[in-house]
Automatic annotation (TrEMBL):
Protein family per UniProt: Belongs to the catalase family. HPII subfamily.
EC number: 1.11.1.6
Swiss-Prot/TrEMBL catalytic activity: 2 H2O2 = O2 + 2 H2O
Gene3D superfamilies referenced in this protein's UniProt entry, alphabetically: 1.20.1370.20, 3.40.50.880, Catalase core domain (2.40.180.10)
Organism: Gelidibacter maritimus
Domain Catalase core span(s) in chain numbering: 30-418
Stored InterPro entries: Catalase, Catalase_AS, Catalase_clade2, Catalase_clade2_helical, Catalase_core, Catalase_haem_BS, Catalase_immune_responsive, Catalase_large_C
Protein name: Catalase
Function: Decomposes hydrogen peroxide into water and oxygen; serves to protect cells from the toxic effects of hydrogen peroxide.
Cofactor(s) of this protein: heme
Sequence positions that bind heme: R74, R114, F163, R360, Y364, R371
Coiled coil (residue ranges): none
Length: 712
């Protein structure tokens, strides 16, 4: 079989990985000891029909390895997809940071990024309603820096101490291991309704951000406030942002549910295919910088990870770009074995006292020990830094290096004092000397106690259709809870964010918003006595709206990588087809021919077109838009298959752009499209440019209210 041409790319890290690659082509089968094998199908037996002999070392080696080939999946973020790429800096920010990757614009820093869902197991659907992990490993010349973030700018909890409770609540319930990859169940909302600090992240999860159209179309956030340290040793607070070049776009919940059935690898496949096609995903990298002196000027605490800094208050300064241009060679070796640690830091960046970040600094190293099984996990090829490493750490399971010499301690004279220490001026990392004068105390700062202002700001900043999606999501999620007291407690909490929202959700649940819950809210918070003591009775409004929080305000200027389903059968008009698809391809769209059967179809001028998917094997939800060229015979044939009608009706319901030329429009007349002829995104006998503009809008949300009634 001809080998598929791969998108090429190289970097210091890719070269390093190459030295570990093992080719299969042209090789002879051997055991792990290099012994040539002549039979891998039959075990050694006492006679043709006899029992298997203990002597069979070939069988034992093969089976033993197989028996142990699984490792524990990540306790959270088990389901993930990764890719290689590089980071480029537009402008030096040496006034803020001395880090090489932030000061040297000539560098191309190799990266490996892994995107993930949080709650589901390794094999769960990509389209779960969930936060997405956005972890990037920068292989810098000063050591590896891991920015382990999410696609939402805030987190559920304020203190690492609560993380096991949060995760236990959202994961499948312990008695029956139900539900998989879903927050819509009693234990999650039982927890959430008792911990008001979760409400901000929780309302983001109800928004479309939790069901991205593509991993390539979501933002990324470092969440915590970090520090940037310049060459003079001065510190600035910083929040890190990733902004996708393709804009931020999502699917609807109805699509998410259907995609989970049609292709549960939808996001993984989309990322892989885009990179293989040379359509490299790109994100711009931005920083929000706050001077030390301004630490306390906000209505919230910079150390509180449930708060964002509205971009309207501190703009995001774009300083660079990440491009992902190479798929892994082996999923397990790279995407599964990659170990991200927030504690992997480099000179020029430092931590703050955010109590969630502080806990993470412990957890990520610890978890690799049970997941990867050894303190030598940094020696696994994907985890090796591009810089040589030297220290006196020794031995442990699976030691891959062969450290030479007589000494493994410091100080020493027998090895000439090596490996020797470096000074800060020679590039050594030294922690920022923050002044601390404090009591040792197990508590939560009063400055962390406003839990409603920012979820309310988020909700206020959404457009009507986005707010509608949040309402529907709450009705779905709380509707799946079986305990009325949990639903009512949630309604009470939501009312603290927005009364009207709570009323709409209550209506959907067939309940009333309670005026109070079984205990006053302060006590309801339970364990966090300090938080409850300071709980403000009312939310604050320090900003009317933050447009940056709405997906409707992102980019709508490209159809690159959009999937267009072209519905054709024998006799389709080649003239229509060519005119439309040539223009779409020029804009970077991906054309997929969908026909009544697999193989090929013949156009009206006798040209043969390859079919990408027979209608029986695909679904409308896997595409961004659809086009039907003319051709009497073709349209007649398509009409015979009810699934094409369903296909079109679903695209219409999901507010997608639909185009048809000549006879193609007749097929639309058999669908609900006939009631939507004035719709801006229904393009009949229109120029390709009209269809392109409609598709670039991602969806025609003006259609949403009417389209919701379409019964598919
Ligand atoms: Fe994680 N998290 N986390 N998390 N997290 C893990 O580390 C943890 C948090 C995030 O693609 C684990 O290697 C604690 C915030 C991502 O491999 C574990 C706390 C943010 C990934 C862990 C948090 C994240 C993880 C599981 C609260 C966004 C996947 C496997 C103190 C800023 C990385 C592993 C990948 C993975 C612990 C909170 C993002 C158990 C204790 C906040 C993207 O160590």
């Amino acid at each position: 079989m001809a080998k598929k041409k791969k998108a090429s790319s190289t970097s210091k890290k890719i070269e390093d990985l190459k030295s570990f690659e093992v080719e299969t082509e042209g090789t002879t089968m051997t055991t792990n000891q290099g012994l040539k094998v002549n039979d891998t199908n039959n075990s050694l037996k006492s006679g043709e029909r006899g029992s298997t002999l203990l002597e069979d070392f070939l069988l034992r080696e093969k089976i033993t390895h197989f028996d142990h080939e699984r490792i524990p999946e990540r306790i959270v973020h088990a389901r993930g997809s990764g890719a290689h790429g590089y980071f480029e800096l537009y402008d030096s920010i040496k006034e803020f940071s001395k880090a090489g990757l932030f000061t040297d614009t000539s560098r191309k820093t190799p990266v490996f990024a892994r995107f993930s869902t949080v709650a589901g197991s390794k094999g769960s659907t990509d389209l779960a309603r969930d936060v997405r992990g956005f972890a990037v490993k920068f292989y810098t010349e000063e050591g590896t820096w891991d920015l382990v973030g999410n696609n939402m700018p805030i987190f559920f909890i304020q203190d690492a101490m609560k993380f096991p409770d949060l995760v236990h609540a959202v994961k499948p319930e312990p008695n029956n291991e139900i539900p998989q990859a879903a927050s819509a169940h009693d234990t999650f909302y039982d927890f959430v309704s008792h911990a008001t600090e979760t409400l901000h992240n929780q309302i983001w999860v109800m928004s479309d951000r939790a069901i991205p159209r593509s991993l390539r179309m979501m933002e990324g956030f470092g969440i915590h406030t970090y520090r940037l340290i310049n060459a003079k040793g001065e510190s600035h607070f910083v929040k890190f942002h990733w902004k996708p070049k393709l804009g931020v776009h999502s699917v609807t919940w109805d699509e998410a549910v259907k995609i989970s059935g049609a292709d549960s690898d939808f996001h993984r496949r989309d990322l892989w295919d885009a990179i293989e096609a040379g359509q490299f995903p790109e994100w711009e990298f931005g920083i929000q910088v706050v001077a030390e002196k301004d630490e306390h000027k906000f209505d919230f605490d910079l150390l509180d990870p449930t708060k964002l800094i509205p971009e309207e208050m501190v703009p995001v300064k774009i300083i660079g770009k990440m491009t992902l241009n190479k798929n892994p060679e082996n999923f397990f070796a790279e995407t599964e074995q990659v170990a991200f640690l927030p504690g992997h830091i480099i000179p020029g960046i430092d931590f703050t006292n955010d109590p969630l970040l502080q806990g993470r600094l412990f957890s990520y190293r610890d978890t690799q020990l049970s997941r990867l099984g050894s303190p030598n996990f940094h020696q696994i090829p994907i985890n090796r830094p591009i810089m040589p490493t030297h220290n006196n750490q020794r031995d442990g399971h699976m030691q891959m290096d062969v450290p030479k010499g007589q000494t493994a301690y410091f100080p020493n004279s027998l090895s000439g004092g090596c490996p020797h220490l470096s000074k800060m001026s020679e590039g050594a990392f030294t922690s920022y000397e923050e002044r601390i004068d404090a009591r040792k105390i197990r508590t939560r700062s009063e400055s962390f106690s406003d839990h409603f202002s920012q979820p309310a700001l988020f909700y206020r900043s959404l457009t009507d259709w986005e707010q509608q999606h949040v309402t529907d999501a709450y009705i779905f999620e709380l509707g799946k809870c079986t305990q009325q007291h949990i639903q009512e407690r949630m309604l009470y909490m939501i009312a603290q964010i927005d009364n009207d929202l709570s009323k709409k959700v209550a209506k959907g649940l067939g309940l009333k918003v309670p005026k109070s819950i079984d205990k006053p809210i302060n006590q309801a918070i339970g364990a966090d006595a300090e938080v409850s003591k300071h709980q403000p009775p009312k939310k604050k409004i320090y900003l009317d709206e933050s447009p940056a929080l709405s997906q409707a305000k992102t980019k709508f200027d490209t159809i690159a990588t959009r999937q267009v389903a072209v519905l054709i059968a024998d006799g389709f008009s080649m003239k229509d087809y060519k005119k439309m698809t040539d223009t779409l391809k020029k804009e970077g769209a991906m054309i997929k021919n969908i026909a009544p059967h697999g193989g090929t179809v013949k156009s009206d001028d006798g040209t043969v077109q390859k079919v990408d998917a027979a209608i029986a094997t695909t679904e409308s939800v896997l595409f961004d838009s659809l086009y039907i060229p003319g051709g009497k015979e073709s349209v007649k044939e398509l009409q015979k298959h009810a699934k094409f009608i369903k296909f079109i009706n679903e695209a219409l319901k999901h507010c997608k752009a639909i185009a048809a030329d000549h006879d193609g429009a007749k097929l639309l007349d058999e669908t609900y499209v006939k009631d939507f002829k004035d719709d801006e995104a229904i393009c009949i006998d229109a120029k390709p440019s009209v269809f392109i503009t409609a598709m670039a809008q991602h969806r025609n949300w003006n259609r949403m209210k009417k389209a919701e009634k379409i019964p598919v």
